Amino acid sequence: MNCFGVTGVESWDLELQIDKLGGGSVTIPGYCYDAGDTQIFAADEAPLGVGTYTITITEIKDGNGCEASAESLKDYWVKLIIHPEPSMDFQIDGESILGETLEFCSSEDIEINYFGVTGVERWDFNLQIDKVGGGAGYPFTIPGWCYD
Q: What is the Cα–Cα distance from 18 to 40, expressed in whole angstroms?
């Protein structure tokens, strides 16, 4: 969180309320010693997982002890959406290949299918091809993408 546009006497104390859509709330203290300060909140202070949150500043108090009114704080909020990490399963010729060793003849065509994709489409990914023992041109990367 960055403290810009603050007024009053330096050394501001803040209170942030984090509400998760569907239930759950946490209140954490914040501070700004000087205008332009940055405060980083550790994951254990406000453990936010996948979901939609509203973060509201519910209190601002300056170095004199003067507090912002509830009316002036009504627009001090932001909606935060944390998306899940995307994932997918790969199959070659109908067999799941995650963590597997497969053998093919050099003359065979191999069809790669993507299943169990999570996240929001379009998915971009890179396939890295390594040759055991290395060799000229290895590893190389093939960019790919898919839609649902």
A: 15
